[in-house]
Every structure is written in C-alpha cells, then in structure tokens.
Amino acid sequence: MSRPRQIHLAAHFPGVNSTTVWTDPAAGSQIDFSSFEHFAATAERGLFDYVFLAEGLRLREHKGRIHELDVLGRPNTLSILAAVAAITEHVGVVGTLNTTFNEPYELARELATLDHLSGGRAGWNAVTSSDAFHGANFRRGGYLDHADRYERAREFAALAKELWDSWPEGDVRADAAAGVFLDDGVPARVRHTGPQFDVDALFDVPRSPQGRPVIVQAGDSADGRTFGAEHAEVIFSLHTGFDDARSFYDDVKGRLAGYGREEDSLKILPAATFSIGDTDADAHERAREVALQQVRPEVALTYVEQVWGRDLSGYDPDGPLPDVDPDTGNETARGWANRHAAVRARIAKLRELSETEGLSIRETVIRLTATPTFVGTPERIAAEIDRYVQERATDGFTVVGHLTPHGLDEFAERVVPLLQERGSYRRSYEEGATLRDLLGLPAPRLAPALAAR
C-alpha cells in the first residue's frame, strides 16, 4: 500500500480582523510577547510547518474613525519573528511583508538575516497594495494600478531571488583568527535595470541554510495567480469549499509547467477556521455562538457600509439588506482596495443570498465571514482535512483560530493526533530540517539571471 500524501499545516496568529474575538474574556494581548510565545509553542508541539503573521501598514479607519478591530495596534512582523525564532527549534517563521512599500535590497537583506538566525526556517509572504489609504504613510503615496502593483511585485521577487542566489552554495567558512571569509569565491555582482528598480549591488548576507527564504503568496486575481505560479512556493488561499479548492488547485498548479516547475514545487494551504465539539451538534452550536461574537450588530453594519460606500447607520442589522445603490466613488476614504464595477456584482450576490434564504443583514454577514471551514467532532474534522489532501484539493491548510493566543490549542490537542493515526501527518520533526524540508519543497533553482552566467 502506497504512503498517503502528507498533510502540511501552518498556524496563523489571530490578528486584528473579523475572525478574532478579542472581546472574549479569554482573549489575550496582540502585542505582549507571551502571546506569541504561547502560540509558537503550541504550533511546535503540534508539529506545524510554520507560524504565520499577517501585517498591516496602517490602522484601518471607518467613517473617519479607527476601526474597532484595529485598536490593539500592529507591531512589526520581522521583530516578532526574530524573537519567535529564538525560542523555538523546529517550526518555521513566516511573515507578511509588502512589495509596494519596501525596497528589494533592504527586504532581501532582512529576510536573509532572519533565515540565518533561525537556522533556515524563514519565509516571506509577499503581498501587494494598490490603495492610497496605505500609500499615504509613504513617499509613494497615491494609487498603483492593479497591473502595476503586480509588475512591481514580480520584478521585486525576481530581484530578491537574484540577490539571495548571488552567493554560491557552501562558500562561507569561519576562522577564529580571520573571522568569516570566502572559500570558493565571492558573491556575484547583481546589476539590475528594470521598470521598477535600478540596482548595482554586492549582496552582504551569505547564502542561508535552506538556500533562500521560502516565498508565500496570497493573491487570487489572474495577475495574482500568475505571480504565484512564477514565484511562490506556498499559496495562502481563501478557496475552502472542496470543489472550489480543487478548482483553484488545478488552475494554479496547471500554470507551473509554463515556468519549468513541477507540482510539488508549490504547496497550496487555504485558510481554515474550525469549530470542534464532542458531537456534531455541539460543534455547530459552538460555531453559532462564536459567529455572534465575531459579527456583532455594529460589525455587520460596518461590513455593508464598506461594501455600499455609504452611511447605513439608519438600517436595522436584524432587518433586510439596504435597498439603495452603492456609492462607488468613495473608496479612498474607506481604506479598502479598489473594487470598481465588481462592487455592484458583489451586492447583487449579497441580495440574492439574503432574499433566497430570508437572511437579515447580520445573518448575511455571518454566512459570508463567520462560517467555519470545518465543523464537527475531531474525528470528522481530521477525516475532512485528510480527504482534501488525498484527493488533491489542497496540500494542507493554514489553521486560523478565533482567540489570541489559545485558539490553536484544541486543534493541536484533539485533531493532530488523529491525522497522525491516519499516517498522513508527521509524528516528529527531523533534526536540523529547514522550512523548505518541512514543506517538502525542492532546493531552489538558481535565479535565471545568475544561471545564465
């Protein structure tokens, strides 16, 4: 009997968003290091591939006021990951860092340093931004067209890989008297001139234990999928329904051959929320209770106001959806990415869902934002996760709890052992394994600009 496909799990630190219930008495701090310490320890105890931190470059605002889900702040991702790497031994550390408001040399240097400090456990979730709301914090204020942000991201990623690859493998040796010196040569000079960047550099951080940091990506547009197929080694997707997930999997993996890549060179790990109960009925009741905490009446109104672009405070959250047209010219003030004509299509779908099932504003928002991916007993959830992976709908999941920092505890304690019993999840870490090893990724190919030399 052949060995089952192995499940890969990442652990998403609960951030300031509509999933996290930070008003729960059991919720902890989003900033105190003890929260990150507990979360990372749980992920490592559960033998996860990596812990994953999102990053926001600005506190969200709504109607000129700080959005209530952001009042806890947004600490710097790299600082947290460096501290987490110091208190863990095996689990990877992956952070979201923006290609629109950073520079390739600086960010490549920071990530390469983290990769060395962690013993080859670092990863970079490369994201883009196109809106003036975030741009106002930087000298590059204003909008980037959707296509331009991915043009910048592709050039950014290609240049970062070229910088990382400019040092030959096995080239650094330590000497007590002379310090660190080159054994087999010097790093190649990187000369790059493109639409976005003009760089002439000798990269000053040697090649890391895993070759270079693992690149993660989350874009879902046509440009985002193309970027993922070209550069990403993990995709954090939002396609969680089985058929939808398998369609996304087939589409993106089908693009890999065009870039000379094999199926296993990219792992797709959708976000997965969960509700566990001793019985299925218990799990569904618990899911409903959490959803009501996640989508309070004022949160539901905020959601529809951001879609409609209007003040809808006069509407009852327990009543029907607004019957007015959206204001599609107010996107900068809302601080959300450009949606253009898609706004009307989205509203039409919301109305269809609401009218077909007789849902109120709040119930509609709950259905869209607070319905767990997996609901049931630990046995049912383990079986479903295994089915997704064995039938190639995903390579695993990015698990998202609803509490900080204990939201991962129950999953690690009750679901992970059942995955191990199925033979589709590791029972231990291999000593000295890098993040690339944990994910089952091949060694990185040399950047094309260097391979040609």
At a glance:
The protein has 453 residues and is an alpha/beta fold. It is built from 17 helices and 17 strands. It has two domains: 8-278 and 372-451, Alpha-Beta Barrel (TIM Barrel), CATH 3.20.20; 296-369, no CATH class.
Level-1 CATH class name of the largest domain: Alpha Beta
Looking at this structure, what is the CATH superfamily of the largest domain? Luciferase-like domain
Distance between the termini: 46 Å
What spatial form do the alpha-carbon principal axes imply? globular
Q: Which whole number gives the mean pLDDT? A: 88
Determine Rg (CA atoms, Å).
23 Å
What is the count of β-strands? 17
Would you identify the CATH architecture of the largest domain? Alpha-Beta Barrel
- Oligomeric grouping of the chains: single chain
Helix proportion of residues, in percent? 25-40%
Cross-sheet strand order for the largest sheet: 13-12-11-6-5-2-1-17-14
Low-confidence segments, ≥5 residues, pLDDT <50? Answer: 171-183, 331-340
Percent of residues in beta strands: 5-15%
Protein name: Nitrilotriacetate monooxygenase component A
Family: Belongs to the NtaA/SnaA/DszA monooxygenase family.
Keywords: Flavoprotein, FMN, Monooxygenase, Oxidoreductase
EC number: 1.14.14.10
